[in-house]
Amino acid sequence: xxxxxxxxxxxxAPTKAPPKACAGKRRPPPRGxxxxxxxxxxxASLEQEVIRLRGLVASLRExxxxxxxxxxxxxxxxxxxxxxxxNDSDAQEQLDxxxxxxxxxxxxxxxxxxxxxxxxxxxxxxxxxxxxxxLQAEMLEEQLLLTRQRFKAEARACExxxxxxxxxxxxxxxxxxxxxxxxxxxxxxxECSDEEEPCGRPPRRRAFCGE
Length: 211
Fold this sequence. Notes:
Elements: H1 2-12, H2 29-183, H3 205-210
């Protein structure tokens, strides 16, 4: 930028123009030679000035490059480092979030496994209890069946006993009635025998019965 400004300044610098000749008059030759010589000197001085300015620009560039390049390199490196650090921090955050998510999933898996284990143990206990209830129900059904059979047998036996007893009673009633009718008129005239003692009569009444 400095070099461009100096070149622009040199190019825009006004140069001394030769005096114009008056119309109708001739310029003397010695004066023309002096003007040409002055122009040559001006061009030579201009070239020297340009060379000097170019050297100055080159020296300034040489002095500014060692200072600006490390700064630029440092700035670029800082940008790269900051960008890399930002990328590293983002990657670390993503890694931490992944680790946390994996830890949460593993804890949920352990809780689910524990729940499944408890449910299996409860199911096993319920199966054992239901099996015990089933066996008890079968035993009670067998006992109920045996009890019903025993009650039926006892009821049948009772019915048979009552039937046989009623039959025997119906058969024995007419003979006992006839015997009582035949013996009832002779009870006052007959003597009491020893078989009548079980009736509760005292032995002293035997003489009375003999009269």
